[in-house]
Amino acid sequence: MLRIGLTGGIGAGKSTVAKELAALGAAIVDGDKIAREVVEPGTPGLAALVEAFGEGILADDGSLNRPALAAIAFSDDESRAKLNAITHPLVGARSAELIEAAGPDAVIVQDIPLLVENKVAPMFHLVIIVWVDAEERVRRLVGSRGMAEDDARARIAAQATDEQRRAVADVWLENTGTEDATRAAVRALWADRIAPFAANVAAHRPADGAPLVADAAYDERLVGRLWVTLGADASSVTADGAEAAVVLADGVTVDAVADRLADAGFAPTEPGEFASSDPGRAATVRVERQAGADTA
């Protein structure tokens, strides 16, 4: 299974990218859609929101009045945190159900509006950022969604900055041209990177001829992904120039973590060494046991 995180600022056009990925064969797990499902009338999620924010967030038919909720929840950090504490666990549980149902060979694309803000980028083989500058997003939100300009700007301000998004981006997809151009870029990304990456992960093999594109931000992402993959089985993880060094926890062998690393996109090449399965970026991971550990 290849897991891709898809995100971008509100109004950036993630839905266009997600639709094209779905047409190419990806299983889309849409965070916004799930967020609506878990607060439909009669759900525990809606009951929790009413308890937290009052009955004024309900429409006449008993459904959630989203503009009314937004006016409260996006007014300050405390209210936004309260909203997230209610909805995020519900969205996470439902997302996990959909991923499980997709099967082990699927390409999963999780469309997560707050992927950067919630610091979940290390969970994914790839993170795709869909980008449009803030002023264009305001124009889109006001023009196509009928959102008040002040509301649009408040929502944009509450989300991650472009710099924060760049720090987690494996793919920076600019959605500034026509829809046809964006769809063509997605198709090229699928053919050149996503499909071969998925095939490599399924076969537990490294990418052939992947370019070395080392930068400090990638080193941080590499370390994060290895920590997520290995958890308590690692005692230290460092990276420099797309070369990572992992020291395993006491009693943990390289063989014990090899399949997990391969599933995470780091295929074995020789004893204690793994290479990235991503055709878009080379990386090397060297894994060793703690000094003095029994090597038998």
TrEMBL record:
Ranges where the record places region Disordered: 269-296
InterPro entries noted in UniProt: Depp_CoAkinase, P-loop_NTPase
Catalysed reaction equations from the record: 3'-dephospho-CoA + ATP = ADP + CoA + H(+)
Annotated positions binding ATP: G11, A12, G13, K14, S15, T16
Bias kind Basic and acidic residues: ranges: 286-296
UniProt GO BP: coenzyme A biosynthetic process
Annotated NCBIfam families: dephospho-CoA kinase, PRK03333.1
UniProt-recorded name of the protein: Dephospho-CoA kinase
Taxonomic source organism: Tsukamurella tyrosinosolvens
Gene name, Swiss-Prot/TrEMBL: coaE
